[in-house]
From TrEMBL, chain A:
Subcellular location: Nucleus
Name of the featured protein: Transcription factor IBH1-like isoform X2
Annotated spans, Disordered: 88-130
Organism per entry: Rhodamnia argentea
Cited InterPro entries: bHLH_AtIBH1-like (IPR044549), HLH_DNA-bd_sf (IPR036638), IBH1-like (IPR044660), IBH1_N (IPR059002)
Upper classification of the organism: Eukaryota, Viridiplantae, Streptophyta, Embryophyta, Tracheophyta
Flavoprotein found in the keyword field: no
TrEMBL record, chain B:
Keyword Cell membrane: no
Keywords: Nucleus, Transcription, Transcription regulation
Basic residues bias: start-end ranges: 149-166
Polar residues bias locations: 111-137
Organism of derivation: Rhodamnia argentea
Record-linked SUPFAM superfamilies: HLH, helix-loop-helix DNA-binding domain
PROSITE patterns xref list: BHLH
Chain positions covered by the region annotation Disordered: 107-197
Main localization category: nucleus
Listed name of the protein: Transcription factor bHLH48-like isoform X1
């Protein structure tokens, strides 16, 4: 459901898509959670729901941002593979399978500093931190990283605003 | 040279108007964003760019450059026009360019200067000679002010004079062949390809850092611009005057981390919300749309193209709910939020100001009402992506 006049990177259309997708996922989480009210649920259940809501928020934001952006693709990939790995762990209960699947395409865990040593001119020592923060950041050169960071920050701000307004609406 | 310049200006005025009008329309249609402008420019067709590049060199075909395919060519000049535009010695050329200064921000200078440049290069060779001394001085700050870099490999920066005057130029010139980008060194700069490439890369990075600075709140630009010197690589000697040794990158990192933490906190809040009787999607959607519209109202750039939608009927129906919601103060006992953002109370109370319903959000309101009503009746929701 895209607003045809807007490009997908525009915060207006991103916001509307995000709200719609996020609200739907919230509804689904609410339905799948235990029927008892939240006050009586255990802490574990509550934390699980928190995690699910957080993942839903990120996934819906990545979907709303579109797959043109590297960070949204990386985030969707990561969520999908985390879920996949989680299921495998539960199914097989073996540590080796998780180690097989952890490297993957985006190489989150390996610290490959491709040309970080060349980027000392502007004091790019913090580029690694930024790479860890932005999803898919390790696979990019610095200028692409900055570009993705800008878009990521915009989408994060949108996400925070929407979530806060929803939460305020319900806490009233 | 002067009379020919004037006559040519007169003849190409209409062409310039038409093609600049088309450009304005073209820019309005996807609403411009500061952070995305250069990425949008990345997609410019290279053939057109090269055509335009070659056309100003031949004095016989200035009209082609201007009145030819008007959709894209000036984007090319955005890259080279920002640097060393030939000064318009003719006032007639300045006036139509000044008329089209509708774009806010950096596009302004690039547009005018590029349009001037396209016409000036074939015409004012003698003028360029004359202005040669002043051009490098002026081109430096304009290069630093630019935030747009069209090509992918290198930056297309013409910081010297018109390309025809190679003999008088002290700067070097890269061979103009496809698909290499033409980078021209500045006066007194090293001219081997490595340093050129590196300088181009550095400027690209600097431009993006500036955009990031604008995005991240609390980054004072005056204090931190000094850290991003374009030409010479330098350490963080100046640093930031805000928080001691924090640099721009640190600020960005802190901001991203704080945003992610806020998302976590908000997700906890949402998970803990008591499931009320009805997940009233209509009212949520309307309320948050309004609040977001209000909070983003000052940052909306181009509401012109969005059609007005008649949502007055639905608006009144939501208005009562907002009034009800604004009465009890929110209980935020669980966590502390930053109070930087526009709270829904402020936005709701200020709703009576005429928010023009030209925003597409209102459009989506009416568009989404039917699936939302279905959701309210507890039917299984469909994922519409």
């Amino acid at each position: 459901m895209k607003n045809p006049q807007r490009s997908p990177t525009n915060p207006g259309s991103v916001r509307s898509r995000f709200t719609q997708v996020f609200l739907q996922s919230l509804l689904r989480i609410r339905k799948h959670s235990p029927a008892s009210s939240s006050s009586s649920s255990s802490l574990g259940e509550f934390l699980k729901r928190c995690h699910r809501v957080k993942v839903a928020a990120y996934v819906s934001m990545a979907r709303a941002a579109g797959t043109r952006r590297a960070w949204s693709r990386a985030m969707l990939w990561r969520v999908r593979h985390d879920a996949h790995r989680h299921r495998l762990l539960q199914g097989r209960c073996s540590r080796s399978s998780s180690r097989e699947r952890s490297p993957g395409k985006k190489k989150r865990r390996t610290k490959k500093k491709k040309k970080r040593r060349d980027d000392q001119e502007h004091g790019f020592g913090n580029a690694e931190k930024l790479q860890k923060l932005v999803p898919g950041g390790e696979a990019m050169d610095f200028s692409c990283l900055l570009d993705e960071t800008a878009h990521y920050i915009k989408c994060l701000v949108t996400q925070v605003k929407v979530m806060r307004s929803i939460a305020d609406f319900y806490s009233l | 040279m002067e009379p020919t310049a004037l006559t040519l200006a007169g003849s190409t005025d209409a062409a310039l108007e038409s093609f600049l009008n088309e450009e304005i329309r073209h820019l309005i249609a996807p609403p411009p964003e500061s952070a995305n402008s250069f990425t949008a420019l990345l997609g410019l067709p290279r053939t057109r760019a090269i055509e335009l590049l070659h056309s100003p060199e031949t004095p016989n075909s200035p009209g082609v450059a201007v009145s030819g395919n008007p959709t894209r060519p000036y984007f090319n000049c955005l890259g080279d026009g920002g640097g060393g535009f030939a000064f318009a010695a003719d006032s007639e050329l300045v006036v139509p360019a000044a008329r089209y200064s509708v774009f806010a921000g950096e596009k302004n200078d690039s547009l005018e200067t590029s349009s001037q440049k396209v016409k000036n290069e074939p015409l004012t060779e003698s003028d360029s000679n004359h202005n040669s001394s002043s051009q490098p001085l002026v081109s430096d700050p304009t290069v630093e002010n630019k935030g747009q870099r069209p090509p992918k490999r290198k930056d297309r920066e013409k910081k010297g004079k018109a390309s025809a005057k190679k003999s008088k130029n002290e700067s070097s010139e890269v061979a103009e062949e496809l698909p290499y980008v033409h980078v021209r060194a500045r006066r007194g700069q090293a001219t081997d390809s490595h340093s050129l490439a590196e300088r181009a890369r550095r400027e690209k990075i600097n431009a993006r850092m500036k955009l990031l600075q604008e995005l991240v709140p609390g980054c004072s630009k005056v204090a931190l611009l000094g850290t991003w010197c374009i030409d010479k690589p330098q350490q963080h000697s100046e640093g930031s005057e805000i928080s001691g040794t924090a640099t721009v990158l640190d600020e960005i990192i802190n901001h991203v981390q704080s945003l992610q933490r806020q998302v976590e906190l908000l997700s906890m809040r949402l998970a803990a919300v008591n499931p009320r009787v009805d997940f009233n999607m209509d009212s949520i959607f309307a309320a948050e749309n309004v609040s977001l519209v209000e909070s983003n109202f000052p940052s909306m750039v181009m509401p012109l193209m969005w059609p007005d939608v008649q949502v007055n009927g639905s608006r009144q129906q939501y208005h009562q709910q907002w009034q009800f919601n604004s009465l009890p103060p929110p209980v935020w006992g669980r966590e502390q939020d930053n109070h930087n953002y526009v709270t829904p109370e402020n936005s709701l109370l200020s709703y009576d100001s005429p928010a023009n319903s030209g925003f597409p959000i209102c459009r989506t309101k009416s568009f989404f009402i039917s699936p939302l009503q279905r959701l309210c009746t507890q039917e299984p929701p469909k994922m519409e992506l």
